[in-house]
Amino acid sequence: MLSSRKVMPVACLLWGMHVAVLLVFGTRGHGPRLSDLIQLALGLLTVLTVLGAAKRSDSFGRYFWWLTAFSFSILSTGQALAIVSEVALRSSSLQWVANFLFTFWFIPFGVALFLDPDHELNGFDSLLMLDLAQAAVCSVAAYLFFFYLPARENASSELVHTVWEPYFLVYGLVVAAFLLRSHLAHTKAARALFGRVGCFVLISALSDAAYYYGPGLHLKTGDWFDLVWSAVFLVPLWTASTWNSARHAELPAAPVQSRGMVIIQVFPLLYPLLILVMSAGIARQRIELASIVVFACFACSSARLLVTQHRLLNVQRLLRHEASHDGLTGVRNRMGILGALRVELERSERHYGQVGIIMADADRFKLVNDSFGHDAGDTVLRKIAAEISGCLRPYDYVGRYGGEEFLIVVPGCSAGETVQLAERIRVQVADCALSVSGAPLVVTVSMGVASGSSLQELEAMLQAADSALYIAKHHGRNRVEVKDLRTGVTAGAR
Asked: Are residues 318 and 341 in the same domain?
C-alpha cells in the first residue's frame, strides 16, 4: 500500500497520463479503452488510499472510511465491467450493470450518515448491517425506478431523460444530508469527515449534471469530459491521504442539545423515504414489484427499531443499576439500600412481620489508608462487601451506607435472629485471608443491630442501629451490639 505522501504524486501522474492519452488518441483507436483503464487505476488507488485512512482512524473514522472504500469499490467494479463488456464480451447485460453501478455507487456511502461519532464501535454493529440492508433495498428500488421500468420504453442502457430530475433530486438529498450532518456534528473529526465528503459528493453531482445537461451531453468515451471524471477522484484521494484522526481529535465543545439529537435520529429515515418515493413511481406500472420493495424496506426499518429499542432498554437498566449501586464494591449505594429498606418495611406492615437491620463499620479503616494507601483501603472495602454478601440469603440486602459503613437489611427476622446473622458475618470477616503488598492484613467489623415492623420506624431503626454500632466501637470493636427500638436498651452479643 502506498504511503500517504506518495498518493497525490501518483494520482497527478495518472491524471497527466490521461491528458496525454486524450490528446494523442481521443475517441479513436485505443483511446477510449486507455481512458477507461486510467480511470479504473484512479478508482483502485482511491480504494487503497481510503483503506489506509481507515487504518489510521479511530472507531468512528474507521467505519466511515470502510463505507467509503466499499462505495469506491462498487464504482471501480462498474468501471471494470464496462471495460470487459466493451472489449471482450460485448454484453448488453454487463453494460446495464456497469451503468447502474456508475449511477448509484454512492448509496452504500450514504450509510455513513447514520454513524454516531459519540458511540464507540468495537465490532461490526448490527445496526450498521441493517442500514446496509436498507441501502441494498434502496439500490433495488433505484434500479427498478431509474433503469428497469424506463427500459421498457427506451432500449438504452444509460439513464433516460425522463428520470434525470428525480436522479438529481436523490443526489441533492444525499449532499444536503452530509452537509447538515457536518453542521450538527459535535466533534472536529466528525465535522471534518462529513463536511469534506459532502463537498466531494456535491462535486460528483455537479459533474453528473454537466454530463447530462451541460457540455458533456452526447460526448463519447475518450472525449475531453473524461478528464472531469478523473479530476473528481483527486478530491477523495487528497482527503483520505491527508487524513489524520489524531489531528482532529477533541472533546465536544458543548453539551449535546436535545434538538440536535432529535434531528440526528432523522437521518436513518433518509433511505426509507427515498424508497417510498421511488416505490410510488414503480407502483404506477408494476404494483407487485413496488409491494415487494416496500415490504423489504418495512422489514429493515422494523428490525432497526427493535434493535434500537432493545439497546435503549439495556441502557435504562444499566442506568438504574448504576443509580442504585456502589461502583467500588458492587453492592447497593445509600439510596439503593434505603429504598430496599422502605420496600421491606412496607411489606412487613401488610404481613405483620419484622425487618432486621445491621449497621457494620470497618475497624481502624483510617489506619489502613494511612499505612498502606487508598488502594489497600478499596481492597478492604471490596473484601468486606464480598464476605457480607456470601453470608446473606438471596432476598437479603447489603449496601454501602457511608465511607466504610455498610447497612444490611434482613426481611422477616427479629432482633435476635438478626444478631445471629451479624455474628456469623463478624466471624466470617475476621477469618478472611487478606494481604496487602505481600503482608497479611487482619480486617474486622463492628456492628449495631436493630429491628422494626413499619415504615414509620425507619428513622428510629437507623438511629438505634447507629447507636448500637457506636457502643460496639466503644467496647473494643470487632463485636455486635443490639438496641431494642421500644425499650432503648442496648445489649452486647459478644
From this structure: no
Q: Which of 258-267, 327-336, 369-378 has the highest mean pLDDT?
A: 327-336
Beta-carbon-side half-sphere exposure of residue 64 (alpha carbons within 13 Å): 30
Residues 187 and 283 occupy one common structural domain: yes
Q: What is the number of structural domains in the chain?
A: 2
The three cell numbers of residue 129 are 448491517
Confidence band (pLDDT; 50, 70, 90) for 253?
very low
Instruction: Round to whole Å and give the CA distance between 110 and 128.
Output: 12
The cell numbers describing 339, all together, are 429504598
Examine residue 92 and state whether it is found in any structural domain, yes or no.
yes
Q: Residue 71 is part of which domain span?
A: 4-323
Q: How many C-beta atoms lie closer than 10 Å to residue 214's C-beta?
A: 12
**What is the rounded CA–CA span in Å between residue 441 and residue 465?**
27
CB 159 within 8 A of CB 212: yes
> What is the rounded distance in angstroms from the CA atom of residue 179 to the CA atom of residue 127?
22
Q: What's the pLDDT at 459?
A: 93
C-alpha cell at 53: 485512512
Q: What is the pLDDT of residues 279-322, one digit of tens each?
A: 999 999 899 999 999 999 999 999 999 998 998 899 899 999 99
- Say if CB 449 and CB 358 are below 8 A apart: yes
As a whole number of angstroms, the distance between CA 383 and CA 381 comes to 5
Query: Across the chain, how many H-helices and E-strands are there?
Result: 18, 8
Residues 296, 408: one domain? Answer: no
| SS3 at position 223 | coil
- Kindly give, in sequence order, each residue whose CB lies less than 8 Å from that of residue 202, ignoring residues fewer than 6 positions away: 175, 179
Residue type, 408: I
CATH, residue 266: 1.20.1070
- 419 vs 447: CA distance, rounded Å: 9
Calculate the CA dihedral of residues 419, 421, 422, 426 and round it to 10 degrees. 140
Give the percent of the chain with pLDDT over 70.
89
Q: When comparing pLDDT for 362 and 191, which is higher?
A: 362
CB atoms < 10 A from the CB of 406, how many? 26
The alpha carbon of 52 is separated from its chain's Cα centroid by a whole number of angstroms, namely 22
Count other C-beta atoms under 10 Å from residue 181's C-beta: 24
Q: What predicted TM-score, i.e. pTM, was given to this entire model?
A: 0.71
DSSP code for 159? P
Report CA-CA distances (Å) from 383 to 196, 217, 434, 439, 443: 54, 78, 8, 16, 9
What does the buried/exposed string (b/e) look like for 249-278 if buried means 16 or more CB atoms within 10 Å of the residue's CB? Answer: eeeeeeeeeeeeeeebeebbebbbebbbeb
pLDDT in tens, 171-230: 888 888 888 888 887 778 788 888 888 898 899 889 888 888 888 777 888 888 889 989
CA atoms of 407 and 400, how far apart (whole Å): 6
- Closest by CA to 293, choosing from 271, 317, 324, is 271
Residues 300 and 377 in one domain: no
